Sequence to fold (240 residues):
Amino acid sequence: MKKLVVITGASSGFGKEMAKLFSNAGNPVLLLARRIERLQEMNLPNAMCRKVDVTDLDAFEKAVREAEDRYGKTDLLINNAGVMLLGTIDNQNPSEWKTMLDVNVMGVLNGMQIVMKDMKDRKFGTIINLSSIAGVQPFGNHAVYCASKYGVRGLTQVARAEMSPFNVRVVCVEPGAVGTELLSHTTSDEIIEGYEAWKQSVGAINITASDIATTIKFVYDLPQSVLIRELIITDTMQDA
Ligand code: NDP
Fold:
């Protein structure tokens, strides 16, 4: 049997496409999200589905250990779960800032700590963290989302340097705008409409979640000695 792939945020968007891709390629997968019914209804082979909030370190670790008992050690962790609550600093409810920082940054750190020690000991393994092009350059109404994604990029760069001597790959993926459920949790209708109009105006129209999943699998499928450290991936026509 192929090696275990752990995917957070597998109930929608990129995570769901990656779940299908890796499972169909023969990897056992641990699929994590809060909406477990969405994970189960995919009915994928060799898939363990667990209702886990990535901010809950204990629940996250328990699910990973359970999957490892069944399928062997985690070879790939994809820290994909994330939320984007757009808003302006002067106006946004601070509870939205906390949600973004907790899920997008603490959730990634939780996942890394759960698998890193074993990977280091085994001198093998891959961790792929989802940052964003909003972790590379600023966008209006994105202050705290940018903070979270710059944070993911920064911590991933440091972890990459720390894990390289142990032959463990740590990768930062920075997608541009792709149509998923991500925007739907933003609470300002005006900002949602503005974002949709911006997406059209910059040309982020054709790229799909499946394209992101295929690219991430390509990065993983390279030999362990080959590391794509960072990857900005956008619609060809996205000009911002
Ligand atoms: P979606 O909203 O479609 O999917 C987000 C996933 O994260 C869902 O499966 C959701 O599951 C899960 N999730 C959210 N909060 C938690 C939590 N607390 N615990 C566990 N799971 C959680 O978004 P995308 O697929 O677009 O986004 C995936 C990643 O890619 C995110 O990190 C996002 O920031 C990043 N990204 C997306 C871009 C885009 O344009 N789409 C661009 C750049 C980066 P559930 O609600 O069931 O828990």
User: Anything to note?
Assistant: The CA atoms of residues 62 and 72 lie 14 Å apart. The pocket of NDP is lined by residues 8-15, 33-35, 53-55, 80-84, 103, 130, 132, 175, 177-178, 180-182, 209 (CB under 6 Å).
